[in-house]
Specification:
With 121 residues, this protein is α+β, with helices and mostly antiparallel strands. Helix content is 21%, strand content 29%. It contains 4 helices and 6 strands, in the order ααββββββαα. Strands 4-3-2-1-6-5 form a 6-stranded mixed β-sheet.
């Protein structure tokens, strides 16, 4: 498949999502996609882990948000959330050394409750 066919496809490889900028509702960059969490059985993307406030991949905090909160904005060339940076700062978070937290059902429940999204489970 040619490069142009890949770019015009509705599908995207996970390696192309990781590192993509994340913008707030005001259009300002607030983070970067670290990973997409996929439900094993259905194969559906369920959560997106983003890094906020890091410099060269160091420091900052991680958030795992429901996939439903993300829209790809072609004008910005990244994913746009329908939330503000302040709302994100108040959301459940974890550190790089606690990455398994994204898979913890208690954390997921807090996150889905915070974002008022119906859980997939």
């Amino acid at each position: 498949m040619s490069h142009e066919n890949v770019r015009s496809s509705d599908l995207i490889g996970s390696d192309r999502v990781e590192g993509t900028a994340v913008y707030g509702s005001d259009g300002d960059k607030i983070g970067t996609v670290e990973s997409v969490l996929i439900e094993k059985r259905s194969g559906q993307a369920r959560d997106v882990e983003i890094s906020v406030g890091s410099f060269l991949g160091m420091g900052g905090e991680l958030h795992s948000l429901p996939w439903e909160k993300f829209d790809y904005n072609t004008d910005l060339g990244g994913y746009q959330l329908d939330v503000t940076e302040d709302q994100l700062k108040g959301a459940p978070t974890y550190k790089e050394s606690e990455r398994d937290t994204a898979y913890d059902r208690d954390y997921q429940t807090r996150s889905y409750d915070y974002w008022a999204v119906t859980p997939y489970w």
